[in-house]
Design brief:
It is a single chain. The protein is mainly alpha-helical. The chain folds into four domains: 5-76, no CATH class; 83-205, no CATH class; 221-303, DNA polymerase, domain 1; 333-522, Intergrase catalytic core (hpI Integrase, Chain A), CATH 1.10.443.10. It has helices at residues 21-28, 53-76, 83-98, 109-124, 129-133, 139-162, 168-193, 221-234, 239-256, 266-278, 283-303, 333-344, 354-368, 374-378, 416-420, 423-429, 446-461, 474-485, 490-496, 504-507, 513-522; strands at residues 5-6, 13-18, 43-47, 385-388, 392-397, 410-413. Strands 1-2-3 form a three-stranded antiparallel β-sheet. The protein has a three-stranded antiparallel β-sheet with strand order 4-5-6.
């Protein structure tokens, strides 16, 4: 149901949600006094305490998160609490009063002392209606009944809001300890009301609450992401893609403030989504990268019974309106020329790694004359550049060098403009191995390559308008657009840029090295050193 909603006869807005069938079955077994407040037979209806829709909407995520935590706890079943946990929970109640009301105690000194006195009466079995009815046979029965009347409802509401479902014994011990600690809180507030704000030594006894681990022992988000990562690599997911998804979970853990997979709720993912929108991240990025990554891993966990459900279900942003496009996705001739001229003039600093300088010099040129993905070209090795006896110089982008999106090698003829400007000389003079980055720990290439990718991006970003949202990726559009303009077939352009076939028929059509080489001879040089409104048509020499 939408949040917030209106209820007939009330000025306030409400949070409403239908209770899932499995949770309904759990609630049916609970005593009425232990059911979460405002949870009815098959739905939840919680007043947001305001008639202002904006204020109500702002409160919805907090209430929804509380509801999701409670549902998760109910599904997980009652847990016995340790004395340390009970003390921590009682301490939270103490601090809610003692610290929460410290600046403005609300009541007078005498009134707070009266609160403490009533608490003590309950502890002695002398509070409320039960004390005078004489229906309890023993002093202990009267004491329990008095404590229940004074503190029972408060304890149940508190446990519900904390998302804690516990057994009868632990609940009862919390009531007993809270009765003592809340008496101390009342006495402290009586001193505050009299102007005494000396340090609160009593609060030092309480430690932070640490939840009991879920039944799925050891099922942390970290463990889930690591297990998924290993399985993903085993089934052929590229290491770069698997690493990126795993890193997203590291960021999610930091955002959530915990590492418990069983505690992640739909509302947590919605809060993540809302924060990303507030940070001006695009809907496409959030849907296709963030939520898709989380969903992939959580589905894997559900299949293996690590999780009861996937918290990302139903969290994708529904947007019928595409983001406005205010320019072409390819580089205009002047823009391409500016980037290539800048790259050709690059001189590295003493502090910059020579391979990073080489990447800034050559990667934009290589992508301009191939439509290759920047990250894949950065992984190029010396041995991947060869001279074919028939078709001349060839670059092979291969999964052996690093992660390739479709996990397939691609042969790219070297354009004569690259040869004329010294690329082959650069390769011949380079040491064996990767040309543009060093390998990392254990021979990994993805991390170092990503660092170089950022340096290339930063260089190009300074040279093109901000409206160009993906300057590194723009070379793919640029190469294919200008290749089509001079009559190169789309299928051939796709093959050179290692673009996936669009149909089953295209999958069976293989573009030979001869066809690629002939096409590259047709591709014009980019016109440098002058302003031009169209790509130059100086064709490479046959």
């Amino acid at each position: 149901m939408a949040c917030p909603t209106k209820r007939r006869g009330s000025d306030n807005w409400y949070y409403r949600k239908r209770i899932p069938k499995d949770v309904q079955a759990i609630l049916a077994k609970l005593p009425k006094d232990q059911r979460p407040p405002n949870w009815f037979k098959d739905q939840i209806s919680i007043s947001l305490g305001t008639g202002d829709r904006t204020a109500a909407k702002a409160k919805c995520p907090e209430v929804a998160a509380e509801v999701e935590r409670t549902m998760a706890a109910l599904r997980d079943g009652p847990k016995s609490l340790t004395d340390k946990q009970i003390s921590a929970l009682s301490g939270e109640l103490y601090k809610a009063f003692a610290a929460g009301l410290e600046d403005s105690p609300v009541l007078t000194t005498e009134q707070w002392l009266r609160v403490a006195e009533l608490n003590e009466q309950a502890r002695q079995g002398e509070y409320g209606a039960v004390a005078g009815l004489g229906i309890h046979r023993s002093q202990e029965e009267r004491r329990r009944a008095s404590l229940e009347e004074r503190f029972g409802r408060m304890a149940d509401i508190f446990l519900t809001r904390r998302g804690v479902v516990t057994d009868h014994e632990s609940r009862w011990k919390l009531i007993e300890w809270a009765s003592r600690d809340l008496s101390e809180a009342a006495r402290k507030l009586s001193r505050n009301a009299d102007g005494d704000f000396s340090p609160d030594d009593y609060a030092k006894r309480f430690q932070p609450f640490e939840p009991t681990p879920s039944k799925a022992t050891g099922r942390s988000l970290t463990a889930l992401a690591v297990a998924w990562h290993k399985a993903a690599l085993d089934r052929g997911v590229t290491k770069r893609d698997a690493d990126r998804i795993k890193r997203r979970f590291e960021v999610l853990i930091e955002f959530l403030g915990h590492d418990d997979a069983s505690r992640v709720s739909k509302q947590d993912i919605i809060r993540w989504k809302d924060q990303r929108l507030a940070d001006k991240r695009s809907v496409k990025l959030i849907n296709d990268t963030d939520i898709a990554s989380f969903s992939n891993v959580f589905n894997w966990g559900v299949e293996r019974e690590w999780l009861a459900s996937n918290p990302t279900d139903g969290t994708r942003i529904k947007s019928k309106r595409k983001k406005a496009e205010v320019r072409e996705k390819f580089f205009l001739p002047d823009e391409a020329a500016a980037i290539l001229q800048h790259a050709a003039a690059i001189v590295g600093s003493k502090r910059e790694d020579p391979k990073t300088t080489a990447a800034k010099r050559w990667v934009p040129w290589l992508c301009a004359y191939s439509g290759a993905r920047v990250a894949e070209m950065i992984q190029l090795r010396k041995q991947d550049v060869r001279k074919d006896p028939v078709h001349g110089w060839i670059i092979r982008l291969t999964p052996e060098a690093g992660s390739i999106k479709n996990n397939k090698f691609c042969d790219v003829p070297v354009h004569e403009h690259l040869i004329a400007t010294g690329f082959i000389d650069f390769v011949n003079n380079a040491k064996a191995g990767h040309l543009f980055c060093d390998t990392g720990k254990g021979g990994a290439i993805e991390g170092p390559a990503e660092g170089v990718y950022k340096r290339v991006y930063e260089m190009v970003r300074e040279l093109v308008p901000r409206e160009m949202r993906q300057p590194n990726h723009a070379w793919r559009y640029t190469f294919k657009s200008y290749g089509l303009e001079v009559g190169i077939e789309a299928l051939t352009l796709d093959a050179i840029s290692n673009h996936a076939p669009k149909s089953q028929g295209e999958m069976y059509t293989k573009v030979t090295l001869k066809t690629r080489s002939n096409a590259m001879r047709k591709f014009p040089r980019y016109a440098l050193g002058k302003s031009t409104g169209a790509v130059a048509v100086e064709h490479a020499a046959e």
